Amino acid sequence: MKLHTLLKVLPFVKFPNDNPEIQDIVQDNRKVTPGSLFICIQGLTVDGHRFAEDAANKGAVAILSEKPLDVDIPVIIVPDTKRAMAILADSFYGQPTKKMKLIGITGTNGKTTTSHLVEQILRDAGEKTGLIGTMYMKIGNNTLETKNTTPDSLTLQSTFKQMLDEGVSSAVMEVSSHALDQGRVFGCDYDVAVFTNITQDHLDYHHTMEAYLRAKSLLFAQLGNAYNHEHPKFAVLNIDDSGSKQIQKETAAHIVTYGIDNQTAQFRAKDIDMNAKGTVFTLVSPAGERRVHLQLIGKFSIYNILAAISVGYVLNIPLDSILQSVENVKGVPGRFELVQAGQQFPIVVDYAHTPDSLENVLKTVQQFAKKRIFVVVGCGGDRDRTKRPIMAQIACQYGTDPIFTSDNPRSEDPEAIIKEMEAGVKGLQYVTFVDRKEAIKYAIQHASEGDVVLIAGKGHETYQIIGNKINDFDDRKVASEAVQECKK
Ligand SMILES: CC(=O)N[C@H]1[C@@H](OP(=O)(O)OP(=O)(O)OC[C@H]2O[C@@H](n3ccc(=O)[nH]c3=O)[C@H](O)[C@@H]2O)O[C@H](CO)[C@@H](O)[C@@H]1O[C@H](C)C(=O)N[C@@H](C)C(=O)N[C@H](CCC(=O)O)C(=O)O
Ligand SMILES: Nc1ncnc2c1ncn2[C@@H]1O[C@H](COP(=O)(O)OP(=O)(O)OP(=O)(O)O)[C@@H](O)[C@H]1O
Ligand SMILES: N[C@H](CCC[C@H](N)C(=O)O)C(=O)O
Ligand SMILES: [Mg+2]
Asked: ipTM, 2 decimals?
């Protein structure tokens, strides 16, 4: 694409005299190849403008910048390069999200789970699907690795283009608050946006809950208009969560509500019956009442199911097909996943790494544990420090045997992180092991029939990040091995 053609989507920019062919758009000087447009991003760690000269030396033919630069290739100046990058990426890759159904899911907890449920509903309805989220990106059945839950706008739009080339008709993605704040999704044309909930997390980044909710609400602000009857847009909101009120004010889309406690929810679960094998509830929906039998457990799972059902419904998928899909779902890897290694008690591996998710999952475990509840839990390094004492306190409140350990300490001292957890539980009973393997072993050695072992925080993760090193570590494997060792 010619530079001038590409720049047409950015109003008021000054077109340079040169009009080179743009082969690629990159934001990392290490990825520049001849013919690239290099975009300078002021990051949180470094200022990308400082790599402009190197990009030019490597063959970049133009630079997008927020300030004048001393290089001998054209420099186009815009007020906000991150935003411009998202808009250019959308245009460069042929506006892929305009040609497919796109569902975005945001909220503190439940994004990965809900996106998998929605993907399943769409597949069962005959769509070829794409999925972007914490665990991977998927095009049909092929998975691609991903670094972020929501990738940068260039990766995002090129992935959508690939999806389109491979026949994807509907894509579902998790939209993190970081991505919204950094404009990674500005170039996405969503049809449906979902809000799961908001509770404490990421205060290291957003600083206040108000700023965190504001970031989440950006997804709904960019969603578009309810009165475009050809392409109506839908905001699917958890009406039991007070954050929905704020979000509702920020969007011009149709509002669709789901919930359990609030009787006005358009998609509501009532008469809930839960046991260790699954959950049964009555779905109240615009299409009438239906009894639903799930293989998932926990009140939080019902919220995810309701969100997914609402999405399917607004996309005109027949309710019968939607319900058949969700009833068949066995679970999502690392979310309340049971480790079966021949032991006499349940071992649950769960991705709860926030106070609210830990509390929810422990309340669910409490319903089934006859005796003790062992909770292995740590808190991530280089992440919200204020959740550490709270998570420790929740582990002590709901567990009988809390075990504090490490969960991706990253650049921080693992012992110091545990100390910050301990500050929340002075005078209470718990044990600590810096080595997560030892913590898991301890729980499994001490548990017996009637007890439950919950290993929280890492879920599907297959690594433990200590310093800059990414070490192999999978809670599910470590737990299985510990069970085998105990049998010896
Ligand atoms: C805090 C945060 O969000 N950081 C993201 C941010 O990095 P950054 O601002 O530090 O970027 P930077 O390193 O300063 O670089 C600035 C610019 O210089 C360029 N650069 C940099 C170095 C160099 O040698 N050459 C070069 O050209 C970079 O490509 C970039 O364009 O922009 C990067 C590119 O888009 C992201 O990969 C990176 O995510 C890091 C890995 C991260 O850990 N992010 C987490 C906090 C995050 O975003 N998490 C959410 C999920 C949260 C949840 O679901 O709970 C997510 O969506 O993943
Ligand atoms: N709707 C929900 N409400 C509260 N907690 C939930 C909900 N759904 C899942 N959880 C809990 O949160 C954990 C993470 O769930 P999930 O991976 O679906 O969330 P996520 O929003 O994608 O998280 P992340 O932001 O880290 O990617 C689960 O393991 C479970 O303990
Ligand atoms: N998306 C979350 C994942 C946290 C998972 C937990 N295991 C940790 O490392 O803190 C984050 O990056 O904050
Ligand atoms: Mg996720």
From this structure: 0.97
